[in-house]
């Protein structure tokens, strides 16, 4: 596994691209993530830190938010059942 900061494919790109909600920008960011050697580590951080916004690890913010909501619902169901 590479070094997240040294090897990040987004390192030399405008960070705004990764936080834009414009479809074309999101797609461009996803293409960059697709070439990134540290994508898995980046994705794990975004999930662990509950990053709600931006493309991280090849996953757009809106998709991660959906995953977080699903996880929260599952956790609440488990708490009710306990
Ligand atoms: S996966 Fe995407 S956002 Fe994460 S470091 Fe690589 S290029 Fe940047």
Q: What key attributes describe this structure?
A:
about 60% helix; about 80 residues; elongated; binds iron/sulfur cluster; mainly alpha; 5 helices
The proportion of strand residues reads under 5%
**Count of discrete domains:** 1
Q: Helicity range of the residues?
A: 55-70%
Give the total of beta strands: 0
The biggest sheet, with number of strands, parallel, antiparallel or mixed sense and barrel status, is:
none
Task: Give the topology string: H per helix, E per strand.
Answer: HHHHH
Radius of gyration: 15 Å
Each distinct ligand: iron/sulfur cluster
What does this structure look like?
This protein has 82 residues and is an all-alpha fold. The chain has one domain. It has 5 helices and no strands. The longest helix is centred in the C-terminal third of the chain and has 21 residues. The structure holds iron/sulfur cluster.
């Amino acid at each position: 596994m590479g070094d997240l900061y040294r090897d990040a494919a987004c390192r030399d790109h405008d960070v705004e691209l990764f936080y834009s909600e414009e479809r074309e920008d999101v797609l461009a960011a996803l293409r960059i993530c697709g070439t990134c050697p540290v994508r898995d580590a980046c994705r794990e951080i975004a999930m662990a830190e509950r990053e709600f916004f931006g493309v991280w690890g090849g996953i757009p913010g809106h998709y991660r938010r959906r995953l977080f909501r699903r996880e929260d619902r599952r956790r609440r169901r488990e708490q009710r059942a306990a």
